[in-house]
Amino acid sequence: MKILSGRSPVKSSNIKVDGDIFYNDTFCDLIRKRLPQFVSYVTQQDVHHPSLTVEETMEFAYACCSSGLNKRVASVLKNDQLPVESMAARHTTTALLNQLPALVLELLGLQHCKNTVIGDAMLRGVSGGGRRRATTEEMLFGTKLALFMDDISTGLDSAATYDIVNMMRSLATSFDTTIAISLLQPSPEVFALFDDVLLLNGGHVMYHGPRDGAVNYFGDLGFICPPLRDVADFLLGMGTDEQSQYEVEARRSSVVTETPRTAAEFGSIFKLSSIHGDTLDALDELHSAEFLANAHAFTDVIPEFHQSYWDSTYHVFRREMLLLVRNSAFIKGRAFMIVHMGFLYSSIFYQIEPMKIQVMMGITFSATLFISLGQISQIPVLMAARDVFYKQRRSNFYRTSSLVVSSALSRVPVAIRRDRRERCVWKLIVLDVRLFQ
């Protein structure tokens, strides 16, 4: 899924890919920089800033991915031959884009917890299902035509998984979006929501076709699904040691001379099937000139980033300031450490001679070292924020330089005020107590 969504650096890694990837009639390398604006990728892990609320996370994603979209869509829908229809389409699209944040909240069932922080293992926030929905909503804004979701059922119960997959099915139906979801051991209710099934094992395609035809296909190979057995569990048993319990020699099709045992054998047989042939015929079918013209008219005007450099830097700066203000644990811990260590140093250097240069240099060195090492506590915060940056940068939320500039600027006023306050407290405790006779 990372390769199909353009998130995997194939050229800089040890991954070997056979064949080429095309989007409509466009080679993937030609639009690789702009590809995240058309294709979303929902990661397996929920990576967020825990102190931001669901609504704040959504608003930031909406600002980064949907800025200026009204003007671009209006230019695409402009049609001099059909002015009435074109005007109606522009009004409908504008209304939809303006109400898109509220619509996404309603669609994913997050309106009741939109003012709750997302949280993590150390901060109480929304539930695991709510966090997974927040991860999904973050990738729905903009001009997304395809959505890849990687093992979204991790850490969720069957009910939460069903709700999310059902919402994705409604989204695909309403907005004509292509959605591919990888799941591990889905429940029968979740499995029934899919239109097509892709069964992979060891890098081999064992089946790729309609969901309703999967049981009959493997039945022709001599494997029968018991009446009370889940179809998903039955399919997951193919190509493994568990397939022997489903094998019925008498039901095997005459086309298959030998029962497949490994994933490679299943893959070889599937390549000879009519289902695979129909898929190849659909891929080789020429697109109409009108379809390609409309597709290029829509995709060619979409830039690599929806926001300008300064708008992007402004929104990232606002978020960085909000994160800095809400880091109350660091501020309180820093204040306690200053007072505690100040009294400790003052007791060590109590009533010394201020004219002794070596002692005064030792005090100065200790104070400078303490204040410098005190900033190490920010390293875990920066490391945690790095994962969020990787996810959002690969999705073209903002430029790397925008985050660097915003992060540096957001810490300037706080650093000046904090250093001044720390020096004053340190002076009052250490120097005044030390020189007290």
Short characterization:
The protein has 437 residues and is mostly helical. The chain contains 17 helices and seven strands.
Describe this structure in words.
By secondary structure, the chain is mainly alpha-helical. The protein folds into 3 domains: 1-194 and 287-302, P-loop containing nucleotide triphosphate hydrolases (Rossmann fold, 3-Layer(aba) Sandwich), CATH 3.40.50; 200-272, no CATH class; 309-434, no CATH class. The protein has 17 helices and 7 strands. The protein has helices spanning 54-66, 69-77, 83-98, 100-107, 128-137, 158-175, 188-191, 214-220, 231-236, 263-271, 274-284, 289-299, 309-325, 328-348, 357-373, 379-394, 400-434, and strands at 22-23, 26-27, 39-42, 146-150, 178-182, 196-201, 204-210. The strands form 3 sheets. The protein has a 3-stranded parallel β-sheet, covered by helices on one side. Strand 6 (196-201) and strand 7 (204-210) form a beta hairpin. The mean pLDDT is 79.
What is the molecular shape?
A: globular
Q: What is the strand arrangement across the widest sheet?
A: 3-4-5
Assign the structural class, choosing from mainly alpha, mainly beta, alpha/beta, alpha+beta, or little secondary structure. Answer: mainly alpha
Strand content: 5-15%
Termini separation comes to 72 Å
Low-confidence stretches: none
Tally of helical runs? 17
Query: Domains counted in the coordinates: how many?
Result: 3
- Tell me the Rg in angstroms: 29 Å
CATH class assignment of the largest domain: Alpha Beta
Biggest sheet, in brief? 3 strands, parallel
The CATH topology name of the largest domain reads Rossmann fold
CATH architecture of the largest domain: 3-Layer(aba) Sandwich
- What's the SSE pattern? EEEHHHHHEHEHEEHHHHHHHHHH
Helix content: 40-55%
- The CATH H-level superfamily of the largest domain is P-loop containing nucleotide triphosphate hydrolases
Pfam family, one: ABC2_membrane_7
Main location: membrane
Subcellular location: Membrane
Membrane topology: Multi-pass membrane protein
